[in-house]
Write a structure and sequence with these properties.
13% strand, alpha+beta, homodimer, 327 residues, three-stranded mixed sheet
Chain lengths: 327, 327
């Protein structure tokens, strides 16, 4: 958003105070409300309006509808080593859990050189970058990840199976410079697609798929987001792989819930998930497993004859015994 | 490669032995040669032929031309904590350094819950997945990263500035299942593009740029690879950001060299690097810094009037004092 005469300006302290009084009004503890306020203010200040004041009603609803605890709960450590911890958020506001976890990771990193904390029983934690920046401000490389509700349709699939699953890295540069990567592992955020539709423009290539898992340029046919990289030909499976990495760090490692279709891993193989005419849905590592099975069946590794000729020339040149072939 | 009658099969033990005798013939210590052999065999076995026997001549050249030490050098630890270490590879073969580092990280992870090791003075270390799988086989989540020589043209730039900079995560699943993400942060590997050219087919969208930094479909005009995500509209800046993440972990954190145009960071801003007609080249975090400067100048955060109306309605509903605007 650029500053035009139509826009109104809210002082930062006033915005913070408004979020706190709104959350306290629905029963949130004041220190929890302050944690949330800090995060929403930061999002708007950094220009990520979708994750700032715009999200306040979502957090209010979470509390009002009992999805998030507004009582005396606090996050607790279930298990830890000098450098790692498993935290139970005990269903308090996501930003309260997130702040607790990044502060614990920072403390561990100061002691051990690195800290890695994963949480279950948490809720929507806002912009991921807030957490990585918090660690960066302590002179560290800060990272954060979160899985989210399903929105991404994996390569060759047609169901929304993984979230937008963002990852972030913040690193201080020289002379006050900063590197703050904060990205969803889908090709774009849903908001970008909505804006495209509002402008009456077609969806650009690589953004979205329809009910059949086929790339669509028409917002009316939108069913899910493509992973970063778009369709298979432009390596969408890499974004899909990154999203699964985030699920592993956040959902699986913490023992909390993750996208319903990811739950059993093998669900990807179900016929109902397959795009018509496409080959099977894969997870990273599957093609290599197939090749290793082939090698095992053959009793060795198959090579193109040119590769063997090359090896033989090498052997001749260095007076080395050449490779013996199986057949 | 599928197994056809044209292909020749080499038993795995024979392949391993051939690599060892080739490397020993040019002066490599036998245990170092064994480390390399292990890696090349694994690449071919997993079906990544580009990184197996196919690369043997490159390692031989490294030794012969004195780029890599063939003497008595071994990697050494320069600095360490219970969970982290900085290693000097002392210019031995990349796979020797890589194996040393992942084994050190595994040992630290056993002690501290997580281990993170970065190395300088190393060389081409082969497929990244070999290292993550090695940790996975110890019951861990394994990760590995490496920066490489420049091949990726960042979003809005026209010079090759970053490498293909791969990252990998390996995680054991139930019932012998595995998740092995092993991906370059460019949209595709160079080899894929060469194969497309050999088939006489145009380069698919999102793969490559020409000398002017513009997307090209013609292999004759190939200048560099696009980052994962392709052009800016399909979020290529995310792949570019991931490649920089890898540079930070491998080049900057270890104090070793990294892509010459990355070295001073601000090089991106030089006019010579800009695509004609495009706006400035950015690093992750730059747009947010601009927005924060805007807020600082305004004395608060600018909002669309509808956002303020929404906040006022919220305040009214919960009987909260509404936000005071700056203007």
């Amino acid at each position: 958003m650029s500053s035009t005469t139509k826009e109104l300006v809210v002082p930062i302290e006033e915005l913070r105070s408004f979020v706190v009084r709104s959350m306290v009004a629905v029963g949130t503890k004041e220190d929890h409300a302050r944690d949330l306020a800090e995060l929403l203010v930061s999002a708007d200040y950094r220009g990520h309006y979708s994750h700032g004041l715009n999200r306040l009603d979502m957090y209010i609803s979470e509390i009002k509808e009992g999805m998030t605890t507004s009582g005396d709960n606090e996050p607790t450590i279930l298990k830890e080593t000098v450098a790692t911890a498993l935290v139970d958020g005990n269903n308090v506001l996501g930003p309260v859990v997130g702040k607790y976890c990044i502060d614990l990771a920072i403390k561990k990193a100061k002691d051990a050189g690195i800290g890695f904390v994963t949480a279950k029983g948490s809720n929507h934690f806002g912009i991921a970058g807030w957490y990585s920046i918090r660690a960066m401000k302590q002179g560290m490389l800060g990272m954060a990840f979160t899985n989210t509700s399903p929105m991404m349709v994996p390569t060759r699939a047609k169901e929304r199976t993984l979230g937008t699953n963002p990852l972030t890295l913040a690193a201080q540069g020289n002379h006050g410079d900063e590197f703050v990567l904060d990205m969803a592992t889908t090709s774009v955020a849903l908001g970008k697609l909505e804006m495209q539709d509002r402008k009456g423009e077609p969806i650009p290539p690589g953004w979205a798929v329809d009910q059949d898992g086929k790339e669509t340029r028409d917002a009316k046919n939108f069913h899910g987001l493509l992973p970063l990289g778009g369709v298979e030909q432009s390596s969408g499976y890499k974004g899909y792989g990154l999203a699964m990495m985030v699920e592993i760090f956040c959902g699986i490692l913490s023992g909390s819930s993750f996208g319903p279709n990811v739950r059993t891993w093998k669900d990807f193989d179900r016929a109902a998930n397959l795009v018509d005419g496409a080959s099977e849905v894969l997870v990273p590592g599957d093609p290599e497993r197939k090749h290793m099975e082939l090698c095992d069946n053959l009793g060795g590794i198959p090579y193109h004859p040119n590769q063997i000729t090359y090896a033989n020339e090498l052997a001749k040149y260095f007076k080395i015994t050449p490779m013996k072939l199986l057949k």
